[in-house]
Amino acid sequence: MEKHRNFLTLLAVVFIGGLLLSFVTVQDKKKGEAWDVPEKYQKMENPSKDDASLMKVGKILYIKHCRSCHGNKGEGDGPKAASLETAIESFTSDKFQGQSDGVIYYQSIIGRDEMPNYESKIPEEEDRWALVNYLRSMK
């Protein structure tokens, strides 16, 4: 009987603790500073802008390298996003989509701070642009 009572007490404590934790809000993440994108990238032209055949390649690269932080739909809600100090901007936002392809290339491939560099992980230029094109499709 004593074992049963101890178990019920433990169960109640765990339940109440979980209930209380569900009301705790996640601390706001800091907003990243504006990107300082070199002019070379700002003026870069996308050589495969209208190549729909690369969309599958871009999606595969996104799933492999980006989804864990940026989430399935590019909303910045992937499983690793919670561990980052900086908030992730949505790829669906007007702000993101309003950038030039070269700026998106720079942000996605060159990176900075918590956004890693992918030059060695995505070495082929065509694949890099396929990723940019896929990010463009997340409107």
Automatic annotation (TrEMBL):
GO terms for molecular function: electron transfer activity; heme binding; metal ion binding. The keyword Metal-binding applies. It comes from the Bacteria. SUPFAM superfamilies: Cytochrome c. Keywords: Heme, Iron, Metal-binding. Residues 53-139 form the Cytochrome c domain. This is Cytochrome C oxidase, cbb3-type, subunit III. The lineage of its organism: Bacteria, Pseudomonadati, Bacteroidota, Bacteroidia, Marinilabiliales.
